[in-house]
Design brief:
It is a single chain. This protein is an alpha/beta fold. It has a single domain (5-211), classed as Spore Coat Polysaccharide Biosynthesis Protein SpsA, Chain A. The protein contains 6 helices and 9 strands. The longest helix is centred in the middle third of the chain and has 15 residues, at 77-91. This is Molybdenum cofactor guanylyltransferase.
């Protein structure tokens, strides 16, 4: 476990392709996507929060702090990351890092946080994000709390693209294989839930070592 890192699950999207509602609460193998994600995330960090807008009561059973965007009009995942950085500064001053994840990617690697830190340390840069089979996943990344003021200024100036903002500061990539499946698979549409069922079955029979 990285004792210096707060995790935020970005659950504030509008889920249009899924038909609306909260994607993290869609069921896979009889459990919400969020449950599968938390099983793999909680051993890696000392604290987890959710970034979601609207009534936080829909996540009440999880007992996690729910932090809403601090900027209006749903400006995208960067706004959720900013909300998490501000929350970390106020509520967890001993945690100088935030790792962000999307609530529709339930099968993250068990070494995600450690390898994100290792990638940024090796590259000598302040930021890192996940990459699998050459495809980057900008919302799944590591963020220093110290950059929250710069991020707020960028958002207020109209910035919306994660990779464009991270490029200003330097962003390393931590790489994973996609065999037997992509550990950053995300359920964007109803048809993706069937694929998620297959991955969940794969994990249930213990074939985990090949994806770590």
């Amino acid at each position: 476990m990285r004792s210096d890192t707060l995790a935020v699950i970005l659950a504030g999207g509008l889920a249009r392709r899924m038909g609306g509602g909260d994607k993290p609460l869609r069921l896979v193998a009889g459990r919400p996507l969020l449950d599968h994600l938390l099983d793999r995330l909680r051993p890696q960090v000392p604290a987890v929060i959710l970034n979601a807008n609207g009534d936080p009561a829909r996540f009440a059973t999880y007992g996690l702090p729910v932090v809403a965007d601090t900027l209006p009009d749903h400006p995208g995942p960067l706004a959720g990351i900013l909300a998490a950085l501000d929350h970390a500064a106020a509520a967890h001053p001993g945690l100088p890092w935030v790792v962000s994840l999307t609530g529709d990617a339930p099968f993250i690697p068990l070494d995600l946080v450690a390898r994100l830190h290792a990638a940024r340390e090796a590259a000598g840069v302040p930021l890192s994000c996940a990459r699998s089979d050459g495809q980057t996943h900008p919302p799944i990344g590591l963020w220093p709390v110290a950059l929250r003021h710069d991020l707020r200024a960028a958002l207020l100036g109209g910035e919306r693209k994660i990779d464009r903002w991270t490029a200003r500061h330097g962003c390393a990539h931590a790489d994973w294989d996609t065999v037997p499946y992509d550990p950053f698979f995300n359920a964007n549409a109803p048809e993706d839930l069937a694929e998620a069922e297959g991955i969940a079955r794969h994990l249930q029979v213990g074939n985990v070592a090949t994806i770590e």
